[in-house]
Fold each of these.
Amino acid sequence: MSQFYKSAMSPRADSAAVSGSTGSAKNPKGPLKKIFMKEADASNFFRRRSRRGVKSRDEINAEQRQILAADERRREFHEEKRNEFENYAEEESDEQDERSRESTEQWREFHYDGMYPPQEYNRRSI
């Protein structure tokens, strides 16, 4: 295993590979061919992108999908909260209307003078 690390880190190596029981490392066949890559490609693959480095299109798209998903969750949350508050405000308003209607009806019953319409409100000014 240490031999592998030495050859993989060596600047002279053209490719990095793990020895296996099937096929030779020089001429891989079939799906094993995709495992091997040149040293320059391998170092670029494992090198971390710097903070100012250019992002790949896939990386940008993935970040945008995450941002859009978070925005959608936030929008749904606030919409739900707004609906809850609107329902609460509507119920509160209905209760207030009911209370004021009841008190108005009680006042009219108490002040009703037996005439319809009540004379107090039907008097003509002299």
Amino acid sequence: MANIENGRQSADTRSIRTISSSHMDDESSLGSDSEINGFTSDRQTDKYGFIGGAQQCSEGQTREVPPEVLRQREVKWLEMLGQWDKWMIKRFNKVRLRCQKGIPPALRGRAWLYLSGGKMKKEQNNGKFQELDSQPGDPKWVDVIEKDLHRQFPFHEMFVSRGGHGQQDLFRVLKAYTLYRPEEGYCQAQAPIAAVLLMHMPAEDAFWGLVQICEKYLPGYYSPGLEAIQLDGEILYALLRRVSPLAYRHLEKHKIDPILYMTEWFMCAFSRTLPWASVLRVWDMFLCDGVKIILRVGLVLLKCMLGTREKLKACQGQYETMELLRALEPRYMQEGFLVREIIEVPVTARDVEREHHTQLKRWRKNRGELNFKPPPRMHGARLIMLAEPPRRQDLQQNPTIVLEVPQPTPKLKKGKEEKKSQKKRSIKKSQPIEEIPNPYSLPNDPPPPPSTPPAPPPIRRGTLETVPETETEVLHQQPPTDLPPAKESPLQRSTQSLSSTDQDTYL
């Protein structure tokens, strides 16, 4: 039986496979963060960020969604995220269907946070992660976590560089969890869970996503003794009897305990087993519907690998059977095939709960009470939301990039200001226009009314002519007699005095 106890693993255990440290040191020392964590000219990355390894995706290996379909799905998901509580309560079947079709990559991280309840948990515990992150942590767990960092997805661009930003964030998330749940501490299988989350969201969001997975979806999986994972192994074994009797009888005949082959599958949520495109689709459904998806994936793989007599001819003993389950055929893990088979498996949350009670009674009869009693398991996003109803402000989407836009003045104030300006205009219009005497009056013009003499206009530099000092001088000046009679000048209504250069044009 696999022995994984809070970061410690026996040398002969192969349930959680690791890569030798010497090979990892070579890989993790490539490049720097500024060069995208280890890229060289001869390395190519796939669309998921892998630069090598078994989970790297080659061209044509995954099912491509047409761009126009992807845009439509993004619009639908944005609409759902904008009214998340209403969709989860009234139209959850539609949410489940869209998760089965696959969440758009651009919105996957945000959708996972909403599905898991991590968004609400984060808003209700504002500043908690920063508080945990600032603490030094328990040296016992810090040492174990640091040793495990370079083992998590060593061929992914985010984690390929030792000490890079990916490994730093992974350390922060795992250390914060040991402080958040000191009674549980750290388990080696938590690292790949946190790493998958970090590929899609910031460190704080990944922390709360990890909290929800450990407490709501897979409670007790990472606790000392691993009793919860053993219970779920028995549940898987019992459900296999109904789904594939042939595979069940074969495993029973050779006395192959479920914990031998399903530990890595379940504890890492298949993140280290399946091709990456299939991992993402499985997680989309898992965070929507809960642990029954993990059980269904396990049932599909066991049925495909051991469900026919031809398959069983090749594995006549325990060793051959274990080798077959460690080397799963790629066609059974292909995204389209696997998702179809998962949806068709007739296992519901009620079946899982019924079998859980049965296995728990058997456990107590044979082994006594559980040493660690985990919180009750929540079967999916809807039950998580109903158990802890969120506040309206907890569901508000907080954009990563905020643009400062000047806020318009309220309409009421604007209307008052407009009324005031209209009144001022009307007052100005109603005032009579003052008649200013023409300085170049004609003989037949009527004499101007007596008024105060205007201020003398200034003398322009560069001209020899000066403006008359008083109005009487202007009136006594006679225009030239040889000029034709001038029409009424628009200057009669002008409110400004003329400069000397303007006067020149009339002389």
Amino acid sequence: MLRPLDEGCLVCTGTLWRLGYCARLLKTNHFRTAASNTSFPAVWMLLAQHSGTIPGLFVVAKKNTLFTMPETVEDKTNPELYLPHPGVRGMTLLNREAFKRTVVVPALKVKKEIVHSVLKALKQSVLQRPGLKRVVEHPEDEGSRFVILDPHKVSEFSLGESEQQVLKQLSVLPEVCKYHLELSYENFKSEEILRAVLPEGQEVTSGFSRVGHIAHLNLRDHQLPYRHLIGQVIMDKNPGVTCVVNKTNIIDSTYRNFEMEVLAGESNLVTKVKENNISYELDFSKVYWNPRLSTEHGRIVGLLRAGDVLFDVFAGIGPFAIPAAKRSCRVFANDLNPDSYTWLLHNCQLNKVHTKVKAFNMDGRAFLRGPVREELSKELPLLGEEHKTAFHIVMNLPALAVEFLDVFRHLLVGEPCSPAGLPTVHCYGFSKHSDPARDIQERAEAVLGTSLAGRCSTFLVRNVAPNKEMLCLSFQIPADVLYKRPCPDEAKPASKRLCTSQDSPEEKALS
């Protein structure tokens, strides 16, 4: 809301300039003003006001005249320009009306026919804040408009010489006026609102994971008293979010889901997501889904070629399996969580790859010792010298996957296939070690019982928490680990010998 004082100039009931901002003016040499203004008295008055020397004064510069206005309540602790009203500190139930406040901003009175030209000429100085109009109507002059300027760039409500020359060429009087600009809850960003509400000096949460219409937060203990307000703010400021949840415990390693509390919005947790141009549907309360793994899913699938075979040991709802099937790979996908298995089948149907994916609801070890061993035993001996099929085994259960690697020790029996045909494992894990790549490699080597030096690669997937990384260790299973060669005595049947008279009846019967 704008309110004129006289001759197109407005006065503020709430102080805009704070001590920190005035100090920046002094430090950055922003003292260029119109020829009719003197900058030092204005800055001095502003500094005096905030230092307590001249309390209750607000300076309004108009030509060569100084006016004073009564000071209103102002948040002097934060030097930033746009902040909600300081009275919202400690609020736990959202009251949007309490966020209203008024600030003073510089503006130019411009004939409406040349507004576009002025905006173009002063594009570096015009207000750019989302949600606020840069051009507003003049309440008393239908033929004019007010162009709102950025107070951070138009110091002391005066334009620099270059801007003044541009305006003179457009026949615009380079005289900056002051306006009351009324800010409301809708004009503040979520981070600004939460920073104003939460106790000073405490971490503000404005980030979240987006899962369809659901915003997923991981709040800290000090934020929990404000959790419902935080949820409402996140929902208000993010179009399309109709449900906000907070994780209330750690991820369960068995089914990879967690308990959550609905902080704001509807309680419907069945949602739709799209990742790498593929659609998935899921119940977020019962299955695992992490949108931060989108790039990693695409990276692994990008290694596959048509005709390859993918074994997904901990498949979830199919973010590796389904895009692999879309690339014409044969896919064996497994998950222990019955809800994940159900949604995996659903998403295979949804994406029309159900004929290319064999789904299983088994323990990971049982899956490796059953369907995986059976398929490898059948396929690997058939590989020729110029085989084209590659076998990939994805093990995305970072908390436990490394412990499953022992299953590969002597999983197959017989003569090894060619080295190029050995299956490639992509095993995920967490590490808090100072050298996480070495840590996950050494842990895998200990379980496999062999060295992977020069035979593996490690990829940093993402930082999960301070000093905690998620990594992917990729390697071809060494033949001496994967295969158990039959002993000569086991390979040939025992030869019969002639019975002698010295043989006992039992020995004769056995021979």
